[in-house]
Structure formats: C-alpha cells, structure tokens
Amino acid sequence: GSCISTVWTPRPNDPQLEAVFLARLMERLGVSQESARAQVAAAAVAPAKIPKAKFVQEGNNTGRIDMSSSFDRAWRDVGLALDRSNFTVEDRDRSKGTYFVRYVDPDIDAQNRRQEDSALGKLMFWRSNKPAQSALQYSVFLKAGAEGTTEVRVLNKDGVSENSENSRKILALLFDQLK
C-alpha cells in the first residue's frame, strides 16, 4: 500500500476563522447559536492583552518594574522570579512588601575564583574560607499601585533606592523572569 504523509504547515492567525470555529465548538457543547455568536463577538472586541510587566527607566542605572497584577499575585510572581534567577532570599517581610536578597555578581565571582585558584591563593592557608565580598545585600521592594498594579524596585541594604550597575542587573534579571 502507498504511504500517505501529512505535513503540518503553519500559517498566520485568522481571527475570523478562529471565531467561527469557537462558535461552532460552543454550539456543539450546548450553547445556543445566537448566544455562542454573541459571546464570540464580545470576546473579539475585548482589549488587547496588557503586558504582565513593564520596565520603566528612571535614571542612568535606576528604574522599576510596573506589574499589571495585584500585590498578592505580584508578591508570588516576584518570589518565583527570584528563585529562578538564583538569588539567595535571606528573609522576606510580606507586610512591608520586601524580599531581602543576596546578589552575587557573576563577573566578580569568577574573578575571585580565579584569584583563589592561583598558586599564591593556594598558599595563603591563613585566609578564612568566608564567601567573597562579591555577594551584596539588597531588598526587592513591592508597592501596591493604583487599579491593581504593583511597583517593584531594588533598594540597597539601607532601604534607599539603589542606583548602581548591580541594581540595573537585578532589575533586568527579574524583568526577564516576570515579562
């Protein structure tokens, strides 16, 4: 017998075809034809999807992330983003909207490791094995904004808005996970 092969060819979205298909599916599931068409038409005029997170540049190395979700949801999403970005969350205070994190700059960390692996580094047995000072403490601060939005900022260990290259890196890493 002959072998018939099918090739799936992607094509651009066709909102009208999708609407017809959705209406037919709804009818098949027991929704009346008029109701199905009305619901599909109403969904078609729904506003475009608002992005989950937006990066707002405020200065040279400072900025914030505006999230289109409520504080509760943003708190959870930022927590997950911190986990995925390999930050060490040392403490959290939900009532103050703050995650206390330790950030290790990968560039400085690699530099320190190279120094420790050198011959001289191996000879300096008197040096303690405490972690390199490349790990800096920051806090990721969430503040509920207007109409169910949330603002995310990076503060230094003194609770002041941070304006540094690290702050920018931290925000960029978080934004990457949140968008």
3D architecture notes:
The longest helix is centred in the first third of the chain and has 14 residues, at 15-28. The radius of gyration is 25 Å and the shape is elongated. Strand 3 (88-93) and strand 4 form a beta hairpin. The chain is α+β, with helices and mostly antiparallel strands and 179 residues long. 40% of the residues lie in helices and 22% in strands.
Sum this structure up briefly:
The protein has 179 residues and is α+β, with helices and mostly antiparallel strands. The chain has six helices and six strands.
Low-confidence stretches: none
* Straight-line distance between termini: 51 Å
Residue share in helices? 25-40%
Radius of gyration: 25 Å
Average pLDDT figure: 82
How many helices in DSSP terms? 6
Neighbour order of strands in the largest sheet = 1-2-6-5-4-3
Oligomer: single chain
Describe the global form: elongated
Strand content: 15-25%
Overall SS class? alpha+beta
Number-wise, the strands total 6
**Biggest beta sheet summary:** 6 strands, antiparallel
Order of helices and strands: HHEEHEEHHEEH
